[in-house]
Amino acid sequence: MWKTIVAEFDHKGKMVQVDLCCRMMEKQVSETDDICAHLNDMALSHKCLSGMGVAIHKEDYASMVLMSLPDSYTMHLETLADVAISSRQTFTIPNFIAKAIELSEKHQLQANQDPKSGQKDSALHMSDI
């Protein structure tokens, strides 16, 4: 009886691990979403999986994060990783995530300064005076 109960809970535990891992791999974020919240969610999923005994290699985790980001982030981060590799430097997961957050902040600043948002640049619109 006890062996049956243990086997059932082990099986359910494995299913939870597989489900969490699949959900982590399927996560996507758009340009307009909160990138920091998304990265925190990815880190929490990684931590939960690690706590369950699932080993996700650094490269795999970096790939999951990279593939979950918008294309504009992906291209920039891949370039940084390639430069680091070619110069024989390590591009660690914390570096990777810090760069993604920097990109998010730049995108937010650009969105706030977007002339299409109704704000006029006074230097360019002197004829309105």
Detailed description of the structure:
The protein has 129 residues and is mainly alpha-helical. The protein has one domain (2-113). The protein is built from 5 helices and no strands. The protein has helices spanning 2-26, 35-51, 58-68, 71-86, 93-112. The chain is globular, with a radius of gyration of 21 Å. 11% of the residues are buried.
Give keywords.
globular, single chain, 129 residues, 5 helices, mainly alpha
Sum this structure up briefly:
This protein is mostly helical. Helix content is 69%, strand content 0%. It has one domain.
SSE arrangement:
Elements: H1 2-26, H2 35-51, H3 58-68, H4 71-86, H5 93-112
Radius of gyration: 21 Å
Terminal Cα separation, in Å? 86 Å
Strand content: under 5%
Query: What percent of residues adopt helix (DSSP H or I)?
Result: 55-70%
Quick one: overall form?
Answer: globular
Q: What is the structural class?
A: mainly alpha
Topology pattern, helix = H, strand = E: HHHHH
Average predicted confidence as pLDDT: 79
Largest sheet, if any?
none
Are there runs of 5+ residues with pLDDT below 50, and where?
A: 117-129
Number of strands: 0
Number of helices: 5
How many structural domains can be distinguished in the coordinates? 1
